[in-house]
Design a protein that fits this description.
mainly alpha, two-stranded antiparallel sheet, 14 helices, 7 strands
């Protein structure tokens, strides 16, 4: 199951999957009583829905992953929103923090927790017979906590694991990926600089349907970005996870 998830980290969802996930994620209004009937789905079905939601838009991908990891400890709405806003990837996000969090709730990655003034959990039974205003008075705080499905997703999609998987999927290009990590680790690089670095490399050659083709250098950048190692910040640069991965490679003698 983990292998399937990893492979999906590098592939955009099919059009029909995007349409399905839009139906799950695009409604920003949310209430605990309106959540999908998770008990009717298998663990694998919920994991698939979460994977599609996280993968659906490349500009939101790492934000959603990091939000799942952050909320492994229950987080109040404001704290979760502030965390997302602090991420460098949020500058390019396509939606606000609340939308992103509730998308994860509707895709079974986060639980929405409602608490009263004393910190107790507000259950659906406690809201029975109350007016909308009375419910608003009862619910003092919203918070989010990662579900079992979300924790599984986080564990098997750690950037280090994604990078190991990426290098393993194309061992003949592993040295080129590592060199590119070292190159952008020295200082932020433009795409033109990356293109110049990789120009003419045998690693760009591939065979598609029996024909020899030359890949664009952007393929390497895109795959490393999808793996959580690169981010655009006035140039391509290493994420914290990418830098840690490169340091581990140096310790093991696989990088300079």
């Amino acid at each position: 199951m983990a292998e399937t998830i990893f492979k999906q980290m590098y592939e955009p969802p099919a059009p029909e999957e995007r349409d399905e996930e839009e139906a799950i994620c695009d409604d920003v209004s949310i209430d605990a009583a309106d959540l999908p009937a998770a008990a009717e789905l298998t663990f694998e079905e919920k994991l698939g829905a979460l994977n599609r939601c996280v993968m659906r838009h490349p500009l939101n991908r790492e934000i959603l992953y990091k939000a799942l990891a952050f909320c492994e400890q229950e987080r109040p709405l404001r704290e979760a929103e502030d965390f997302i806003a602090s991420l460098p990837q949020f500058a390019s996000a396509t939606q606000n923090q609340y939308y992103l969090l509730t998308s994860l709730v509707k895709a079974y990655g986060l639980d929405l927790v409602e608490r009263d003034e004393e910190g107790g959990i507000v259950t659906p039974e406690m809201k029975e017979g109350l007016t909308e205003d009375e419910v608003d008075d009862l619910v003092a705080e919203l918070s989010f906590k990662t579900t079992e499905v979300g924790r599984y997703f986080v564990e098997y999609n750690k950037p280090a694991a994604r990078l190991v998987d990426l290098l393993g999927l194309a061992p003949e290009r592993a040295d080129t990926y590592i060199e590119l990590l070292e190159y952008v680790g020295a200082e932020p690089r433009t795409y033109g600089q990356v293109e110049e670095l990789l120009a003419g490399r045998p690693a760009l050659e591939t065979v598609i349907d029996g024909r020899r083709e030359t890949m664009q250098p952007s393929v390497f950048v895109d795959k490393l970005e999808r793996a959580g190692a690169l981010i655009w910040n006035k140039g391509w640069t290493l994420t914290e996870e990418g830098r840690e991965f490169l340091e581990d490679l140096k310790v093991n003698g696989q990088a300079q």
